[in-house]
Amino acid sequence: MLAAKRLILKSALLPDGWRESVLVEIDASGDIVSVTPDAKLSDGESPGGHAVPGMPNLHSHAFQRVMAGLAESGSSGSDFWSWREVMYRFANQMSLEDLESVTAQVYVEMLRSGYTAVGEFHYLHHQPDGSPYDDSVQSSLTVLRTAARVGIGITHLPVLYMRAGFDHPSPRSEQRRFINTLESWQEIVKGSGRLSEQSPNTEVGAAFHSLRAVPQELLREAVETLDASAPRHIHAAEQVGEVEDCVKAMGVRPVAWLLNEIGIDRNWCLVHATHADAQEIKELAGSGA
């Protein structure tokens, strides 16, 4: 445990704008318990300088930190899909101990870089051979406990991943650690929610890997089971090929389908959306997502 602190900041960016002489009280666990502007300089220790709130990292796959830089060959055949093959090879060799170590490393790196909260888009659910752990929530538990130990706030987002693509109803063998039925995914979400109650600065939402990985009728059903205020994330329009495949299979672009069929609102985060068109961007902005 740390010693409680009272810090006086020369200025800080608060919800109502920049304020001067800001007293920040921090308890022995390292949590900020109060922020008071226009305080007396004698009220606390002055570290000097100015302060802004810690940044949230909205999209993390912590286990991928271990392969950083190893999939970018620079050759003409190097792209997202070749990167994905490298990722599969790493994912299918990682033990829970490896996951804990890598997650701790990347969360410490985030804190050192000014990120104080993370959205963990977690789909490494099962054992390397694809069979569930004895406790289906064990992998999520590893991530949640690591975040608490490191001291970073976390929104844990167990990912529903069901198939290899629009025209591939069965998953590839390399995806075996990611795959769940709707029912087994719901158990992981519920179990993670119970675990989150034991840790401060912890929230559990839900994520859907992508429209190519979750059939549209099951995506609708899954969304209906969530608490109305639960954060929910999905990869969308990340690659040109994904958009083209979606149009071919469903007759509509992925972001447009989500806007029209799911009812995107402020609880949603559409990750990447690199290839959203102008109309989709306009509608996303209006949705509050």
UniProtKB/TrEMBL annotation:
The Formimidoylglutamate deiminase N-terminal domain is annotated at 10-47
Give the keywords, sorted: Hydrolase, Metal-binding, Zinc
Family annotation (Pfam families): Amidohydro_1, HutF_N
Q: Does the keyword tRNA processing apply?
A: no
| Matching Gene3D superfamilies | Metal-dependent hydrolases (3.20.20.140), Urease, subunit C, domain 1 (2.30.40.10)
User: The Amidohydrolase-related domain covers which part of the protein?
Assistant: 52-284
A cellular component term (GO) from this record? Answer: cytosol
Q: Which cofactor does it need?
A: Zn(2+)
Tell me yes or no: is Metal-binding among this UniProt entry's keywords: yes
**GO molecular-function term, one example from the UniProt record:** metal ion binding
This chain's protein is named Amidohydrolase-related domain-containing protein
- Organism equals marine metagenome
